[in-house]
# Entry
Amino acid sequence: MPYTVLVPDNLNQAGLDLLNAADDLTVNAPGLMSRAETLAAIPQADALIVRSSTKADAELLAKAENLKVIVRAGVGVDNIDLEECTRRGIVVMNAPDGNTISTAEHAFGLMLALARHIPQADRSLREGRWDRKKYTGTELHGKVLGIIGFGRVGRALAQRAQAFGMTEIAYDPFVPEDIAHHLGLSLVPTVDALLAQADFITLHALVTDETREMINAENIAKMKDGVRIVNAARGKLINQADLAEALKSGKVGGAALDVYDTEPPSDDNPLLGLPNVICTPHLGASTYEAQAAVGVQAAQQVLDALFKNRYGNVKNKAVLETL
Ligand code: MLT
# Structure
């Protein structure tokens, strides 16, 4: 009997082509499915490929009688209940390689936009003003860039910032010093050391019990006055109310955000109305190149898992002992 792959989110065509070319595989991928449609289709699925729209939570997993694998076409698996998957013997994988450059480029673009007020100046000109003095910016050259989280994206960003003559420091307790040295920068031993030195801070960490809301009033107080903050990782790294207060007081000079604690952000999000905030709707990985790459990687990982029992980038490793 052929396996069935359910794809309830929009997956890039290159990934779908790979699935459709496989023998003994039925591909159910009608485009973005509603929650009700996904719940109705999940009992038949042997594999599920999601981006961020589909929530693979306890309710969905309870109906997933045949499900063997879930692949997240992208990095973050915060929309998947890993514990419940492990309990049910479902392997969860991500496809982390394809969107590194796109996310690093977007974070870098946000940093430039922040330094030079580009979105605000664009709006002002379109509204009929010619505000050259008001939008005086700052150079990136010579500034200290603090990178929190030195994984794939943090490192790709570091390489780009070097070309702009920034001095870089990074904090990541899981990365060996020689990796940073190899890239020509130093790891600082504590997050406090980074907060005290950085003119720009960019977040590239996962959300864990240690990092959740790490940008909060207490840590903001340790930063330089006028520091600028970029977040293209996850919204829950920031305490939004605390950051809003610091932006209003000028302690934080500006923030550029691609991610929010709820997405889309709620109407009463305290950050969106502030003049020194730049925001984009979680576009880090939204390039043709990244979506093709993660789509193909996700599809290949499903094929490897179903037909070869080969599992890469597993996010709930304990499940492998139960297979
Ligand atoms: C990721 O986790 O891969 C990125 O945040 C992009 C996305 O959610 O699609």
